[in-house]
Design a protein that fits this description.
Its EC number is 6.3.2.9. This is UDP-N-acetylmuramoylalanine--D-glutamate ligase. Pathway: Cell wall biogenesis; peptidoglycan biosynthesis. There is one protein chain. The protein is of the alpha/beta class and 450 residues long. It has three domains: 96 residues, Rossmann fold, CATH 3.40.50.720; 190 residues, UDP-N-acetylmuramoyl-L-alanine:D-glutamate ligase; 137 residues, Protein-Tyrosine Phosphatase, Chain A, CATH 3.90.190. The chain has 18 helices and 17 strands. The strands form three sheets. It has a six-stranded parallel β-sheet with strand order 7-8-6-9-10-11, sandwiched between helices. Helix 5 runs parallel beside helix 8. The longest helix has 16 residues.
Length: 450
């Protein structure tokens, strides 16, 4: 490992960079502002309008070295530039990305560009169709609580709400650790850079984003596989058992299979066997840093869970309410339903679900819902329409007009001892700008109920 951090201000000064996709979640704003402060010559291009991006644009209004292009991308902005910084949502097959390649312009992304600029930082990357957020949070919590023992700083980046990774170049030093959640799109950047994290965790692999990948599980896995594809022999890959079966035997790094049998004496607040598998992965990462077991156990015991991931919110008149907003696939909702059904009688869960279709199979999901749920109340959307049209829901079911109406219907349906589980199994688009907006509204609605 090269023991250095580059002079990033000098590196980015006067560089001609096209930022493709500013967005409204904060990450695009974070690295755009950072590059502007470094003196880069920026073109910020986004398909959204100025009005839609108003909050992000306002935060950048004082920079004279930024030119905005709203409502379109222009081929000329992908010629004669030093690099393209691509937002994760932009497909690699985009005609504009192809134009940049034709002109031999490097395609960069936030986290992988950080890794290039800071080879002296130890990178811990976490991916998986499900479980990456919980595992990332656990790893960060354990390492952060042990900073004094480790004698190095721990930072959080990647697919974390409102967090841009590139600006961390201002803080990190060689030997520090960056723990980052990496979705398949962000891992495209690692594929472009032909690099992988030093310690990688692959939690799970199942169908998701098939609308983006055009029903190709091979293409989806190819992006995910960048988390270990370029690892060296001194690097480490940690997987849950079922992932081992799909990993090539030709990997160069050390392979560790996380086993829940090794953590039976750990006290962990989050329900579900799948969450304990995520915990097992996090503990294996901690072991790579030689953190004492007693220190790891203390951090795990104090872990409070993660918002939107099978999160207990409150009890209303004897009815427990859980927020599993980030369950955006049928498999994720299945895991949540099963976790809350453990050691309980069947038919106690009122499920709140529905939303936008992601072109995923719903057969097993329907079976689980019919078996373990008392009723299902649905948010309007293309996925909801598909569910009711193509599958037979045998339990009481209805569609609300919006999320507030759906929550009210669920509470009306529930009796003391029941559980209300908000676990959509579908994407948020259509009714919401993104899953975070959906999460925030749900939490606001629940907190407003006495």
């Amino acid at each position: 490992m090269q023991n250095k951090i580059i002079d990033f201000k000098e590196f980015f000064k006067d560089k001609k960079i096209t930022v493709m996709g500013l967005g409204i979640l904060g990450r695009g704003l974070g690295y755009t502002k950072f590059l502007a402060e470094c003196g880069a010559d920026l073109i910020v291009s986004d398909l959204k309008t100025r009005k839609q991006l108003a909050t992000s644009v306002k935060a950048l209004k004082n920079f004279k070295n930024i030119k905005f292009v709203f409502g379109e991308h222009r081929l000329r902005d992908f010629r004669g530039r030093d690099m393209i910084l691509k937002n994760p949502g932009v497909p690699l097959g985009s005609v504009y990305i192809k134009e940049a390649r034709k002109n031999k312009i490097p395609i960069e992304m936030d986290v992988s560009l950080f890794a290039k600029c800071a080879p002296g930082v130890i990178l811990v990357g976490v991916t998986g169709t499900r479980g990456k957020s919980m595992t990332t949070a656990l790893i960060y919590e354990i390492l952060k609580k042990n900073e004094k023992f480790l004698k190095r700083k721990i930072y959080l980046g990647g697919n974390v709400r409102g967090v841009a990774t590139l600006p961390l170049l201002e803080k990190v030093k060689a030997g520090d650790v960056l723990v980052c959640e990496l979705d398949s799109w962000q891992l495209q950047g690692f594929g472009e850079a032909k690099t992988s994290p030093h310690i990688s965790v692959f939690t799970s692999f199942m169908p998701d984003h098939m609308n983006y990948y055009k029903n190709s599980m091979r293409d989806y896995f190819a992006d995910k596989a960048n988390i270990f594809k370029y690892q060296k022999s001194r690097d480490v890959l940690i997987v849950r058992p079922h992932v081992k079966k799909i990993i090539s035997k030709k990997i160069k790094s050390k392979l560790i299979v996380a086993d829940v049998k090794n953590i039976t004496d750990y006290k962990f607040i989050v329900p579900g066997e799948h969450q304990r598998e995520n915990l097992a992965c996090a503990i294996e990462v901690a072991k790579q840093f030689k953190i004492p077991t007693s220190n790891i156990k203390r951090a795990v015991k104090n872990f409070k869970g993660l918002e939107g991931r099978l999160q207990y919110v409150k009890t209303i008149k004897g009815v427990k309410i859980y927020n599993d907003n980030n369950a955006t696939t049928p498999e994720a909702t299945i895991a949540g339903v099963r976790a809350l059904s453990e050691n309980k009688k069947e038919g106690k869960i009122i499920l709140i679900g529905g939303g936008a279709d992601k072109n995923l199979d719903l057969g097993l999901y329907v079976n689980v819902v019919n078996t373990f749920c008392k009723a299902i109340i649905l948010i309007p959307g293309t996925g909801t329409n598909k569910l009711l049209k193509k599958y037979k829901i045998k339990i009481p079911n209805e569609i609300g007009k919006d999320l507030k109406d759906v929550v009210q219907r669920a509470i009306k349906c529930a009796k003391r001892g029941d559980i209300i589980l908000f676990s959509p199994a579908f994407a948020s688009f259509g009714m919401f700008s993104n899953e975070y907006e959906r999460n925030d509204l749900f939490m606001k609605i629940i907190k407003g109920i006495n």
